[in-house]
Amino acid sequence: MKIREMIQACPAVHYAGRKKRIQRCRHIAAVCMSLILAAGFLGGCTGKEKEGGDAGGSVKGRYVEETVELPISEDEEVLNLTRSKDGNPVLFSHIAGTDISRYEYQDGKWDKTSVDWLNNLYKGTEIYPEEIQEASDGSQIFKGSELNGTEMKPHLAAGSDGKAGEELKAPFLEEKDDLGYPMITNIQKDEKGNYWLLDFYKSKVLVLSPDNLEVQEEINSVQCFSNTQKVIVTDGKGNMAVNTEEGVFTVYDPDMKEKGKVKTDAEGLVNLCGDGDNWYLFSEAGITRYTLNNDLSEVLMDGGMGTMGSAIDVLSGAVKGQGDDFYVLYRQEKTGSVSLMHYIYDKNISAAPEHTLRIFGLMDNQTVQNAVVGFQKAHTDVKVEFQTPGNEGNVSADDIRTLNTELLGGNGADLLLLDGLPADSYIEKGILTNLTDLAGEIMKQNDCIETVLKNTVEKDGKLYGIPVKFSVPIIFGDAERIGALESLDSLSDYLKKNPEEPVFGMADQSYIRDFLFQIFQKELLTEDGKVNQERLAALLEIEKKLMVNARAEAFEEMNEKETRMGTAVSILQKGVFYNGGNAAIVNHPKSAVTDQIRSLPGMMIPYALMRQLSLKPETIRDYYVPHGIVGINQSTKEKELAEEFVKYLFSQEAQGARLDDGLSVFTSVLDGLKEEADSEYAKNYTGMTGWKIDGEEDIEFEMTYPDRQEVEDLIEKTSTLKNPVIQDYVIWNIYQTEADSCLKGDLDPETAAKNVSQKIDTYRAE
Description:
Elements: E1 5-8, E2 12-16, E3 49-50, E4 59-68, E5 77-83, E6 89-95, E7 99-106, E8 109-114, H1 116-121, E9 127-134, E10 140-148, E11 151-159, E12 166-167, E13 184-189, E14 195-199, E15 204-208, E16 215-220, E17 232-234, E18 240-245, E19 248-252, E20 258-263, E21 271-274, E22 279-283, E23 286-290, E24 298-302, E25 314-320, E26 326-332, E27 337-350, E28 355-360, H2 366-378, E29 382-387, H3 397-408, E30 415-417, H4 423-428, H5 436-445, H6 450-455, E31 457-459, E32 462-477, H7 479-484, H8 488-497, H9 509-519, H10 521-524, H11 533-549, H12 556-565, H13 571-574, E33 592-597, H14 604-613, E34 618-619, E35 623-632, H15 639-649, H16 652-655, E36 663-664, H17 667-678, H18 680-684, E37 687-691, E38 699-702, H19 708-718, E39 723-724, H20 729-743, H21 749-765
Parallel strand pairs: 28-29, 28-30, 35-39
Antiparallel strand pairs: 1-2, 2-37, 3-4, 4-27, 5-6, 6-7, 7-8, 9-10, 10-11, 11-12, 13-14, 14-15, 15-16, 17-18, 18-19, 19-20, 21-22, 22-23, 23-24, 25-26, 26-27, 30-35, 31-32, 32-33, 32-34, 32-35, 32-36, 37-38
Helix pairs in contact: 8-11, 9-11, 9-20, 11-21, 17-19, 20-21
């Protein structure tokens, strides 16, 4: 089944044909264990008990995560998690459409029953089940969809075990608009029999009368970006909560009167459940308890200590157990798998783990964050803190200077992600540990792309940093334009002969600025780090010409808007080889296009363009871009633990996680991408992508996963890569600042080049 969804990006607009998780943007800060407040939640388990005989007298008690084995068979699909009238967790599943089963979990066992009223009601139909919720009286409400021509038509039904069910023929379900039938998500039934559901497209919660199924109440809801987003929640005590605005759930009593608000600061997909007195929020941050109209909250469990902090497991449902425990359902979309976790308070375990391992990086890294979760599960006595500056990659030179001061003083994090950091300087100053033996052990135990591991942070035959993932820069398009990019001189000669030709078709200023600096860096910086001012001035002059030819001004308004909204991304996030105007090659076929391939989804747009124009990709100067370059601080007091974490980063479990933040350094995992290209998930992903900008003809083309042959060709190219793209963020920041002043006309190229040279000399001397 294909579900409509619109995802907008500037200047492109994508129309995807499958439900997708929202991109989760976050920064990880150190979480003080004192925030994990169990006090007051359990009468006899305050989190402050001391175990007799404990030599250290340490504080005891915290929430822990346990896996609940699921009862479903291989061909069953879990629909959702809900709660029985007796307070037990309930799972609904289906096989081949409407063959629906109910599983109730009690005393550590699953009790399975068939949902006969629903199976009989829709027997012989092609209605695809999507969600079943159970009300406080034990009755059930069902939501499904049926393909009606080219549109999906929603169906609602209600019934209970042992009784006949009925189709709920609500009049508004037949009302079509420009988008077709309403898209219904989030269904609930209150204690008076009213049906609550979300009109996804209109961002409205509708309350239907059980008598005539007419809409008796409309409540504006937060705008949803995923059909898995939980907007309507019942506490099983007669109260309903609706996510009415960002970070706010409004609670209504049984008479549908506003009772109060629960205000949160959670981001991304969240789940809420209640017990009549309290509301519990489940998010990446963990489990947090709230009370109505109270700005204070209690963090019961840090999300980083369990699956909630995982980068691949998506929160899909949460219910409170019989006591002070919780059950949370997670999904992994690419694998189609689900898992159920039980969170219980263990009064005998230390409130704070015995060891703390600190990781610092300039920006978040999904693979590392996911490994943090897995590592902590296997090491319950370890708390791993992944710290970033907290400004989404927009790091200042002062941030790095502060870090350098800490490291030189023998402090700082135990592990460093060296992306953007001055690794060479750290090696010279003895800050980084020699990882040669550890890397050798990893390569001996696994089939790795050794050139990527060995060439990234190497000096005098020793390794001081090894990348967790990498990406592949590619180039395609007109051969003459690609040839012009071979050197600074060849590009200069080309522009002298073709002064008005847009080498890149269309591109914004930041792409032209950064891409050219990267590929000509060896011509601009000597081996001892000095700037060739004459060559840099020549480059800036060329960039000014290319900006005009590529209509860079057309991107200015978009970039200003992104900056105002706080969504602008840094060089560390987007990569120097990504051009936001690459789709313009359709209108400007005599141009060169570059991109940076981190995953199969990242291949979709550039490979769609190449298919349309019968082009093939090539690598660029045998470049690869390392991601998550992990190094160990020589001054760490947890060296053995740090090495264990590095080993875990290079385990099959961590490398094989279905993440899209880079390609694995394991050849076996890379080979697995071929199977991903052939998977049902990939085959069912269909959609259109469009590109619109003033003064250009609109572009629209089909967007699909790459096929197996395209993936095989990309994997084959990875074996030839040997030159790492390494960027010292401070040097790049100096160059970008002065280059922008030049490109805006505030400085001439010679003065800008002189400023860059002087500032880099000062930085290197510090």
